# Entry
Amino acid sequence: MGIINDTPHRRGSGLRTVGACLALVGLLAGCDSLLEVDANTQTVPAEELNNPTSLQARLIGAQADFYFAADMAIVYGGLFTDELIDATGFETVDQRRVTPDNGAVGATDEAPEGIDGLWTPMQRAAAVTDVLQEDILAGNYPNQIPSPTTSQQLADISLLAGYTKLMLADLFCTTAFGGDGPEYTSDETYGLAIDELTQAVDATSASAAVRNAALVGRARAKLQLGDEAGALADARQVPPDFQFIADVYSSNSQKEENDLWNMMFDSQRFSVGPDYRNATVPGTDTPDPRLETRLDPGNGVGSDGFTPLWQPLKYQSATSPIRLASGDEAQYIVAELVGGQEAVDIINDVRARRGITETFSSSDEDEILSMIFQERAHGLFLEGQRMADLERYLEVYGVNLFPTGPGYGDQTCMPLPNAERDNNPGI
# Structure
């Protein structure tokens, strides 16, 4: 495929001035559980979607659909940026020249190994969470949920719905939902995510874990929209040591596996980008424990037969959990917006919580901001934030950190797939 020169970029490039409890999900005993359900082996059957007696099955299905979609979002965002490189020979995503008819991004379904069809699992997650949310608010579960608008169940499903839209806004130039809806800009999609996450924040019966995760996601969306005051207010409410970890994976079946592990260890499709291979703590010569990697001990190359296969020890098994939200991310948002000595202190505090003793010191605002960029890259590696970060750096600060090279395009987001545009009468 040729380089696409007319694919829309995310937004305008005007600069703006910078003003700048451990909670586990799923199976960890003794901690808040996201949906308080067991892992699922398949998505909820279609006939269960409108069955008012099937709340438990629908919660299980929503969780399974969401985390499969989240895996895909993290991988594709990492591949589009500098976190991952392609090891299959199919380089259009890796080289930022995605066409609307791209089979991997917009396929009508995902392949058994879980790489095809980014758009489909994302849309499935959006549909399942939206319909369940509507049924809860309509009072269709009076026995299980007597107070829908304040319930833990509404908070749980709104969190998933919000993060689904947040990830779609990060990845795609425009979006659409429901098969018959309008085409939304990324900014409008961030607004939809904020609405969903606000429902989770405002539900008085929500667990502290869900509320904090929703605050992190809402702060992230507001940051992307340029609402610095709102982002700062949300981020400051999150405890610095908070972590929302998705420990929902199982080796019982391929559907239940952590797909990041599958695609980098089992299927050998993607390799860790050069800048993240056993890198050092920024500004030091000390190995960074957040970026431990290894060269595949087998034949050392990916499925294309020649790309060196570097694997992240962060996800070294089929059951490795994924961190969906954290106090680290909230603190980085605060640091980016306030700068100065508070930002320096935040960098050092986050390092200390991750076992890093080396400290950073500076009074130069440009140097501090550059360090925040590096720390976010290391501290949030393969957690799904990188694509939005690079878009923001380019738009707000005029700093282009997207990978470039011979044959690369200049896209900063992926176009709406033809699979959606051709089948959605509302577009």
Residues 1-44, 110-115 have pLDDT under 50 and may be disordered. The beta strands are 23-26, 84-86, 174-175, 184-185, 243-247, 270-272, 293-295, 310-312, 322-326. The two ends are 26 Å apart (CA to CA).
